[in-house]
Amino acid sequence: MKKMIAVLKASKDLFLVQSAAILLYRRMSTISILKLDGLRKLPLSTQTFAPYSELQKQKILESHIVSILHGCTTLNQLKQVHAHIYCKGLDQCCYVVTKLIRMLIKMDVPVHWYPHLVFRQVKNPNPFLWTVLIWGYGVQGPFSESVHLYSCMRKKGVGPVSFTFSALFKACGAVLDACLGSQVHAQTILIGGFASDLYVGNTMIDMYVKCGLLDCGRKVFDEMAERDVISWTELIAAYTRSGDMKSAGDLFDGLPIKDMVAWTAMVNGYSQNAMPKKALEFFERMQDAGIAIDEVTLAGVISACAQLGASNHANWIRDIAESSRFRPANNVVVGSALIDMYSKCGNVEEAYKVFLSMKERNVFSYSSMIVGFAMHGLAHEAIKLFFDMLKTEVKPNHVTFVGVLSACSHVGMVDQGRQLFSVMEKCYGVVPTADHYACMADLLGRAGYLEEALKIVETMPMKPNGAVWGALLGASLIHKNPDVAEITASHLFELEPDSIGNYILLCKTYASVGRWDDVSRVRKLMRGRKLKKDPGCSWVEVKNGIIQEFLAGDATHPQTREIREALEDLVERLKATGYQPNMGSVPYDVSDEEKKRILMTHSEKLALAYGLLNTAAGSIIKIMKNLRICEDCHSVMCGASKITERKIVVRDNMRFHHFIEGVCSCGNFW
DNA sequence: TTAGGGTTAG
């Protein structure tokens, strides 16, 4: 650096010095301006200006100041440069002032304060200067100010530039005002020339999409004279967000040059739409195409692996992340995604290791870890982490509270949950949403306070959603309360008429108290609505990361006989320790013998037997299930963990159960 | 000036 300055100082060529200085300022953005002061003064000396006209000197000065502005990293530096701008008599130069305002806004200085003040001091603002302010309000709000400024600008007879419309669309998108957006759209056509501008088109697509008018966005796209990869990607992402992967895929196929962002939009689209296998397939195609990846790609793929819940996928993507530039310890996005993934793959210990290794943690990292602990029934750990978080600068958000409340719910910590719920808004500024009421309904309901839960639901300030009533219905089954179940189910059948799970919960609740007539009435209702029960389905991980799937009653596996024998043998040994089949887990009015037979074909039992046969002695057995584990299977898992001396981890659709030496981490409370 | 983003519940 010193050498370079010496060479530059010795140089007589002003343009050489100038361009080198600009390069230096841009590249060494962290170097304080003062350090480079000697260099900054150099080209401004009277001597070196000699061969240039006044106008040229002015232009050089302007571009010089702008390059210094670009190098600023703190507000103080900007203030210093601002003072310098005054000294040099450039405070009326729109070009320089525009750049100053832009930098101020980028540093989150409130637009209405410093930037707007600087703007007011310019006597004849040009369109760019007007626009940068419009853009500033479009970024920070109040967004109405963007529109107001635009009309002021027009009243003063200043014509817009294309950036003016981009800025306006940004503001309309931010307030989801499609009506205003289409008025601005009309202006772009009326004034002429702007509607065909690439930037304007792209921001217009973005605005329509944000306002939920995907078709309008598509129309703009179809009519654009010129498109770039950004136009395509905007629309692809919009389709993925709306769940239309078909249209997203069609567009993607037609995209002439696909860059990393476009590929990532597809990978993450599949991941967000619960198609994790497709996401991984696409990711591999992306890698085969030699496209680089970044933290956003990794986050999506990691989320897909989390959904699959299998250790082999987890280890595979962990290796990729570790060997990339975005290592979990150094990257808060990748780190947080990994915490979630390990929790969902049943390895909460590894999730916590990742959490501890992270140099920076944000609300995603904390919330993911809290939710992870909650999922595994580690409520005390979740709550401790929550209070640790409060000691940092990271503020809890609505997800963090869902995490702590569900942690309380999973272990029956009613008082702690009530306390947190009562202070979440007052002390932490998080306004309870329907999700939080669902957690409360779950917490109180599970713990047996069904009436109190019902009261909360009936008096909550917003309309209860499916999750809220669903929580109550689940609790009604646990506590065998068909009266509350009937009330909740009637709401659920309206809100979610096609959701089979609600009908089944109601049936099971009736069955639990022997009201078989009601059971058949609900079944008839289901048949009338053409609803079919989801078959129970379990997966078990065996050697080399192979995953075996079993449906309830499955007799298609080549090892079926061995599986059945192993299961019968296991149950016999369990009976010797006091186990009795739980007939209440079969919601059918059939004989006890038939109930026993049905119990033996539950998918998680088949998976367990297969796991025992096909994994090494002493290793952990990991099972995933699409539905909630039934009570009978739960007690079989408990017993099996003791007599086979195996740790068994079951992930059902609610949470994780860790069975160790005859005890489940859920404390039989799930 | 414009694109892709990780955590939530029955």
Characterization of the model:
The chain has 670 residues and is mainly α. Among the domains are: 1-90; 293-360, no CATH class; 433-528, Alpha Horseshoe (Serine Threonine Protein Phosphatase 5, Tetratricopeptide repeat); 537-664, no CATH class. Helices cover 65% and strands 4% of the residues. The protein is built from 36 helices and 6 strands. The chain has a 6-stranded mixed β-sheet with strand order 2-1-3-4-5-6, with helices on one face. Helix 17 (260-272) packs parallel to helix 19 (295-308), helix 25 (398-411) packs parallel to helix 27 and helix 33 packs across helix 35 (603-614). Residues 25-49 have low confidence and may be disordered. The structure holds one DNA strand of 10 nucleotides. Residues 578-670 form the DYW domain. This is DYW domain-containing protein. PPR repeats lie at residues 126-160, 197-231, 259-293, 331-361, 362-396.
Please specify the SSE layout and strand pairing.
Layout: H1 2-10, H2 14-27, H3 37-41, H4 46-49, H5 54-71, H6 75-87, H7 94-106, H8 114-120, H9 127-140, H10 144-155, H11 162-174, H12 178-191, H13 198-210, H14 214-223, H15 229-241, H16 245-254, H17 260-272, H18 276-288, H19 295-308, H20 311-322, H21 332-344, H22 348-357, H23 363-375, H24 379-390, H25 398-411, H26 414-428, H27 434-446, H28 450-459, H29 466-478, H30 482-495, H31 500-512, H32 516-528, E1 537-541, E2 547-551, H33 560-576, H34 592-599, H35 603-614, E3 621-625, H36 631-643, E4 648-651, E5 656-660, E6 663-664
Parallel strand pairs: 3-4
Antiparallel strand pairs: 1-2, 1-3, 4-5, 5-6
Helix pairs in contact: 2-5, 5-7, 6-7, 7-8, 7-9, 9-10, 9-11, 10-11, 11-12, 11-13, 12-13, 13-14, 13-15, 14-15, 15-16, 15-17, 16-17, 17-18, 17-19, 18-19, 19-20, 19-21, 20-21, 21-22, 21-23, 22-23, 23-24, 23-25, 24-25, 25-26, 25-27, 26-27, 27-28, 27-29, 28-29, 29-30, 29-31, 30-31, 31-32, 33-35, ...
The structure holds one DNA strand of 10 nucleotides.
